[in-house]
Write a structure and sequence with these properties.
about 325 residues, mainly alpha, Serine Threonine Protein Phosphatase 5, Tetratricopeptide repeat, 18 helices, about 70% helix
């Protein structure tokens, strides 16, 4: 849990550094002591100071950070409604990430009635302030026709603009538009292209989708070895959906002709990723399949390998305890 909090804390500090450039110098200076407390992990002192600045000084950076306290549950239970309310106040102070988050809140109807048209306005505002990924969220509204006239081509153009700026989540989202969109925008070759660009920048979701396309021959010829590489790249970053496909490709690897068994490397890798799947997958049927495959691996794997391999599995899962499932 401590590592999760540190990761979230680091993300918040980075976000604060980024948004500081978008506001006047005084609000940034005012929050310096609060930021130091937050960086030190003193949530109580940081929250008190941010609350004072948010209410008494109407400081947008403080309002934004209070939203993060409620969003991530730092030192208190998460409260999405309170988070959205503070994001709304911070958005009025031209904080880019707050404007994007407010749009998400309005789109989902978290702290007030859902309003896709207002969400679109705030996504555009966030993009204009420099949060370029907001263009892909705006694109989703165009593609679906929610709050805006349905215009998939316009949506693609917006998300492509963000992708061409090198925004990695935009590269991944554009790939998904081309992979999952309707007949008017579906283009598997283009999806593979954008997923490849994001995968090379270490985006695990893109690595996973690229691996699926390479495995299944979508958008080009099948390439099982490349698929295994990208599945394992995603899995190694804690992307749980990639665990079982990685394990299965090692499990299904060609056997050594002389013995009819797996190579030592493929055997060890199959055990590692099957074990990780069994411990982390939320899919009961997948866990059942995994247990049967794992038993076949255990039947032929030397017992002397177990301590080192089990330690590797434990360390990986501990390092990615907060990974999506």
């Amino acid at each position: 849990m401590k590592s999760i909090k540190r990761l979230r804390l680091y993300s918040a500090v980075v976000a604060l550094v980024v948004v500081t450039a978008a506001v006047a110098a005084d609000p940034a200076r005012e929050t310096r002591r609060a930021q130091q407390a937050l960086a030190a992990g003193d949530y109580e002192r940081a929250f008190a100071e941010y609350s004072r600045l948010a209410r008494e000084k109407n400081n947008p950076l403080a309002q934004f950070t209070l939203a993060l306290f409620y969003e991530f549950g730092w030192g208190r239970a998460p409260d999405p409604v309170a988070a959205c309310r503070w994001h709304e106040q911070a958005a009025q102070g031209a904080i880019p990430r707050a404007a994007h988050s407010l749009a998400d809140c309005l789109r989902r109807g978290v702290h007030r009635t859902a309003d896709a048209a207002q969400a679109a306005r705030w996504y555009r505002q966030a993009a204009d302030l420099g949060h370029h990924y907001s263009l892909c969220s705006l694109a989703e509204l165009y593609v679906a026709g929610h709050g805006l006239p349905k215009d998939p081509a316009q949506g693609l153009a917006l998300c492509r603009e963000a992708a061409q700026r090198g925004v990695v989540p935009a590269l991944t989202r554009l790939g998904r538009f081309y992979l999952e969109g309707g007949d008017e925008i579906r283009d598997h070759a283009a999806a593979r292209q954008w997923f490849t660009a994001a995968a090379r920048r270490n985006a695990p979701q893109a690595q996973y989708h690229l691996a699926v396309m390479l495995r299944d021959g979508l958008g080009g010829a099948p390439d099982p070895l490349a698929a295994r590489h990208w599945f394992e790249s995603a899995a190694s970053r804690g992307y749980v959906p990639a665990y079982f496909p990685t394990a299965k490709l090692y499990f299904d690897a060609p056997r050594v002709p002389a013995t009819g068994l797996w190579s030592e490397r493929d055997l060890a890798k199959a055990y590692l990723w099957l074990s990780a799947t069994q411990k982390r997958s939320p899919d009961a049927q997948e866990r059942d399949r995994t247990a049967k495959m794992l038993q076949q691996v255990r039947d032929v794997m030397p017992e002397s390998w177990l301590p080192a391999l089990d330690t590797e599995v434990h360390e990986h899962l501990a390092a990615h305890a907060d990974a999506p499932r």
